[in-house]
Amino acid sequence: MAANENELEFEFLPYIRVYKNGNIVRLKGEDTIPAGTDPHTGVSSKDVTNIIPETEVYVRIYVPKISTNNQKFPLLVYYHGGAFLVQTPSSPTYHNYLNALVAKSQVIAVSVHYRRAPEHHLPAAYEDSWAALHWVASHCNGDGPEAMLNHHADFRRVFLGGDSAGGNIVHNLAMAAGNPDGGLNVGILGIALVDPFFWGSDPIEAEELDSGKKAYVDRLWGAVCPSCPLDDPWINPLAEGGPSLVGLGCWRVLVTVAEKDLLKDRGWLYFQVLSRSGWLGAVEIDETEGEEHCFHLDNLESEKAKERMRKMADFFNRDLPPMAFQ
């Protein structure tokens, strides 16, 4: 008997419903805003859809106002959040955020869309994100397919950034970039992990106080990567037997966490372990009091969201460390 179209296979509110007939309904992040010039910030954007042939992978490039033909900007490759299930660079949440971040930070941003679960379980998102980073790096000698990146991106100042699932992706890309055999032909100056989605089998701190939420995230990871245990290094970078953080392939790390976020303690633990790992870079952490996970995306005009953005802008625009890329 054919499955009734209303029979649920599973759901993860507020993200997604999957029905037994194979229909998938995403409950957020599916509205879109076209690329163009933002009237509030003057930031211009365009989509590039031929990143990986025969996939839905694309990037949206954001460029601040350019005053001279030879002007160079730091380059931020950004990976959106959404639990590996929802959101795109074209969704209002991320389009509006990247316009504001680019205007404030005076960076060129390449916002990456990757294939999402449950149609495409991990490692699809990692593979797409890595391929997109290689595509960006193909412009480092000024002969890539996008003129704006060739002429105005400063490849001495390449950053990766992402929130939640995107922060998880950024960590894993930085680990891959630190592998001498990874084949990435540009250096990564820094990474920004915004309320990153890290987890593990053994509960810590706040997770011990809310077993219901712990069970929910456990199930969520199982839907995103059915073949991956909760202590796979992809989701738990501090797991015993996993690769050492000494191999992180960048010089600066910014971790942000929010006081009321269940993931906060994982972010703090990552900061603490990286600090004493022997890694040669500089790591910092910033906690926002009284706020939930990725609060800044819901109200860009709030003072706390503006303060978080100021910290990001400062992180992207500091002087080059003397040991980088020598």
From TrEMBL:
It comes from the Eukaryota. It holds the Pfam family Abhydrolase_3. One of its GO terms (molecular function) is hydrolase activity. Residues 76-296 form the Alpha/beta hydrolase fold-3 domain. InterPro entries: AB_hydrolase_3 (IPR013094), AB_hydrolase_fold (IPR029058), Carboxylest/Gibb_receptor (IPR050466). Belongs to the 'GDXG' lipolytic enzyme family. This is Alpha/beta hydrolase fold-3 domain-containing protein. The lineage of its organism: Eukaryota, Viridiplantae, Streptophyta, Embryophyta, Tracheophyta.
